[in-house]
Design a protein that fits this description.
- It catalyses: Endonucleolytic cleavage at a junction such as a reciprocal single-stranded crossover between two homologous DNA duplexes (Holliday junction).
- GO terms for molecular function: crossover junction DNA endonuclease activity; DNA binding; magnesium ion binding.
- It comes from Desulfomonile tiedjei.
- This is Crossover junction endodeoxyribonuclease RuvC.
- This protein has a 5-stranded mixed sheet.
- The chain has helices at 45-63, 79-98, 108-116, 123-133, 142-159, and strands at residues 4-11, 17-25, 28-37, 67-71, 102-106.
- It is an alpha/beta fold.
- The chain contains 5 helices and 5 strands; from the N terminus they run E-E-E-H-E-H-E-H-H-H.
- Strand 2 and strand 3 form a beta hairpin.
- The longest helix is centred in the middle third of the chain and has 20 residues, at 79-98.
- The chain is globular and about 40 Å long.
């Protein structure tokens, strides 16, 4: 009998946070839900964080994922962008901890290489491969595709017993 796990990938952003829920049953992965949370641009950063948290919390309550996968931070030239992204990641990690999810982080290069075979893959290449692997049509945004890629990558890497926290 194969074990079933619900995995939530989240691509953090202060203006667009992508989420993707994948169900892993043995070697097979299936998309359960995905989308993007867009806080209004006129909101304060604190309000954007609340909107992201509450939006993701509603999804967590509905889908009940056991695992949360988030992209680890990488080098930023703009320190303000890094600060805002760190704040969004913080509320996402808080959500995962609050709901008792196992939390994993991977670098963008790990995800790209694992999904496309090329660590410097473009957003379009990632979108194409995620859609192909999950048999999806019309992924709406790169943020949604990246979130699904996070969940999908963890689904595959956990089969090998190589997942890193």
């Amino acid at each position: 009998m194969s074990e079933t796990t619900i995995i939530m990938g989240v691509d953090p952003g202060s203006n667009a946070t992508g989420y993707g829920i994948v169900q892993k049953s043995g070697p097979r992965s299936t998309r359960i839900a995905s989308g993007v949370i867009h806080p209004p641009h006129h909101c304060s950063q604190a309000e954007k964080l609340r909107i992201v948290y509450e939006g993701l919390e509603a999804i967590v309550r509905q889908e009940d994922p056991a695992v949360l996968v988030v992209e680890s931070l990488f080098h930023f030239k703009n320190s303000q962008s890094l600060i805002k992204l760190s704040q969004v990641r913080g509320v996402i990690l808080l959500l995962g901890a609050r709901y008792g999810m196992d939390i994993y982080e991977y670098t963008p290069m790990e995800i790209k290489k694992g999904i496309t075979g090329y660590g410097a893959a473009t957003k379009d290449q990632m979108k194409f491969m995620v859609a192909k692997v999950l048999a999806l049509q019309g992924l709406r945004s790169p943020d949604e595709a990246d979130a699904l890629a996070l969940a999908l990558y963890h689904s595959h890497i956990s089969l090998l017993g190589a997942a890193a926290r």
